[in-house]
Amino acid sequence: MAFIRLQYEPIDVLACYQKMKAPAFGGIVTFCGTVREWTGELQTTFIEYTAYEEMAVKELRKLAAPIEAAGGKVVIVHRLGPLEIEDEAVFIGVATAHRQEAFEGCRQIIDQLKEAVPIWKKEINTTGERWGGELAHD
Q: Which CDD domains does its entry note (predicted)?
């Protein structure tokens, strides 16, 4: 079963990685999203994540389900609350028998997470605050 967690504590990247290791898996792909200082011309001070937690976990399980049904392993950990520059905001790991499926699964999860999961980002920057944090060219 996928390991899915929303948490206020820092993400232990090594512990997340260790959850994916198994003799059946030859490919392990991870993605760590960190808080960056600059988004275009805007300098970030910090970011705050909030979520509809019960629904977010349900949606994250849906994203992991096809990979796990095909024999893979998925680990998704997302931070909530205030985060500083360079903090890990999200860890996504996919382990499969071969690297191609692991790369595809990891990319698919992060892309779908940003679209479908009720986790919201409030970015506080030197000019104020905004929700979402992305610019058109990102």
A: MoaE (cd00756)
Task: List, for residues 50-98, the tens digit of each pLDDT value.
Answer: 999 999 999 999 999 999 999 999 999 999 999 999 999 999 999 999 9
* 3-state helix/strand/coil string of the chain: CCEEEEECCCCCHHHHHHCCCCCCCCEEEEEEEECCCEECCEEEEEEEEEECHHHHHHHHHHHHHHHHHCCCEEEEEEECEEECCCCEEEEEEEEECCHHHHHHHHHHHHHHHHHHCCEEEEEEECCEEEECCCCCCC
Domains of the chain and any CATH numbers: 3-131 (3.90.1170.40)
Mean pLDDT of 105-118: 96
